[in-house]
Amino acid sequence: MVLSNNAADQRNVDLSLKLFVVLTRALQSIEKQVVRDIRKHHLNLTEFAVLELLFHKGSQPIQKIGQKVLLASSSITYVVDKLEQKKWLVRKASPDDRRVTLAQLTPDGNRLMEAIFPEHSQAINEIMDVLTADEKQNLIEQLKKLGYHAENM
């Protein structure tokens, strides 16, 4: 059966809407599992994201952390304050530019991430384990393509 242009166009629109719903639900389900895993360590998702960034990338300008973990700059100060109170990070002036304040893991923060990140990494792997390595690679490429397209519209 050959679809008319109008029918083919409508099918494409319907598939786009379904893809959006499926993608959103999948992300919500994945995020629910990730949050459950992170909460076991008495952290919320944002706190973990900041600690993970510093653990893997080293000291970061506080002003840039929000962009990297997709958090509003007004919220970053609150999260950094909480992590500083827990003695997991410190603020330091940048040696290159005294106007810039860096967030840096403390030894306690580093020990915490060394202890919990391998378990977290395994939890993520268990969520994604339903896909083969080739399916994961293909999905990564397709989602990047979709994301770049949406970003550049």
From TrEMBL:
InterPro entries with a match to the protein in the record: HTH_MarR-typ, MarR/SlyA-like, WH-like_DNA-bd_sf, WH_DNA-bd_sf
Q: Which Pfam family is one of this chain's hits?
A: MarR
> Could you tell me which residue ranges the HTH marR-type domain spans?
16-148
Look up keyword S-adenosyl-L-methionine and say if it applies.
no
- Assigned keywords, A-Z: DNA-binding, Transcription, Transcription regulation
The protein depicted here goes by the name MarR family transcriptional regulator
Q: Which organism is it from?
A: Tigheibacillus jepli
